[in-house]
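Q: Could you write out the predicted structure for this multi-component system? I'm mainly interested in how the pieces pack against one another.
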Amino acid sequence: MGLKEQLVRKGDYVWELPKNTVNGQKVPVIIYLSDALFELLEEDAIKQAANAATLRGVQKAIYVMPDVHVGYGFPVGGVMATDTETGIISPGSVGYDINCGVRLIATNLQSKDVAPKIKELMQEVLKNVPAGVGSTGDIRLSPSSMEEVLVKGAKWAVEHGYGLEEDLEHIESFGSLPNADPSKASHEAYERGSDELGTVGSGNHFVEVQMVEEIYDEEIAQKLGLHEGQVTIMVHSGSRGFGHQVCTDYLKVAVRVLPKYGIELPDPQLACMPFLSNEGQDYFKAMCAAANYAFANRQILGFKTANTVRRFLGLSWEEFGYRLIYDHAHNIAKIEEHRVGSKLKKVVVHRKGATRAFPPYNPEVPPAYREVGQPVIIPGDMGRASYLLVGQPDSMEKSFGTACHGAGRVMSRRAAKRLVKEQGLERVIAGLTVVARGKGTIMEEIPQAYKDVSEVVRVIHELGIAKMVARLKPLGTLKG
DNA sequence: ATGTGC
């Protein structure tokens, strides 16, 4: 019998694979889905979550978000917490793109200010913001300046003129993880990262000019400084080749030391090390360094895009009204304190394609947002919409303080290309303004290739994990 | 995701 058939329905949006369903499964797998999204759930994604539930020191449950799909070893949309003393850390459960994440910038502009000239504006963004596989930026980092980026994260970017000091307060972990140790990243990672800072990358990464299309909660929107018709800028990118190399390097290390630590795995892609081992600590410190690279990357991308739009419209900064709403990771592992049973416990929370969604009054939520909760930015596809939510109290018990991260693919890259070839690109993306160096990524990233992000977000809202605040509509998109 | 892959 397949695992999907063994899922037990626990509520309108809650499914459970009880512990011990697969051999050695220490905790249940809890999957959050609507009926429509249940239909799209892949057997292999359940298997991957169940595999993770066998790992050493895993706590409470593996949680799976409604935008789940199969990933490398651990599903995208998966959340795993392991005991900091007895548990493991797993590079595959963070993902190859360490600190892939999203940033949302508010402006004083109205959609009517940009909509009529959006094509010309996006051509200007294409000229100024490097995008695509292997694209390089205008920053060259010597090994010593690279070290500074890896330690300071977004702060490095602000010190070098990209953005404002006050931006840092509105970034997860203030844009800089304290456990970063640049010496734990390889020479190869340094090389790859030396010319890619301030570049978008490829795949689902993008820079987008948007408008606030609908407000769901007026009071919260007001506190966040958002209103209908307002122009926003969204950035979706990560740590580029640097993070990719860190993941590659430490997956090899993990595989090598499995026998030393007596770790047996249901899937070699789940290769991991005890968190407190030398190798586990090395990975953690290198991963934090890669996360800081990504924070710096998005800081530069967001500011460069804003500056391009501002100059195109001939506005002063004051008229433009640049303001960072928030920036957060959705591929990361962090040490956090969570309630497990009756006591608080320090755990390593792995979020892979999953966003931290801390509730109001959590000390990690910046003062300006303390009463509304941590902003949760959910990018959709380039055709439909993206969402802004805020973390709610139930997230702590239901998912280690975690929400979804996006729409999630429903069509393979190959199938998407086939559809475009059959129907023609003009027809498939009719009415959208998308710019890119080539057509390849656009073909793979058509809206039809994605699940409906509204349905994903609705599940998170209904569960009380995060609350819907606003829907953002793409005006123009830059893809890799 | 990725100096993209059988």
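A: Regarding packing and overall arrangement: Chain A has one domain: 4-86+97-410+450-479.
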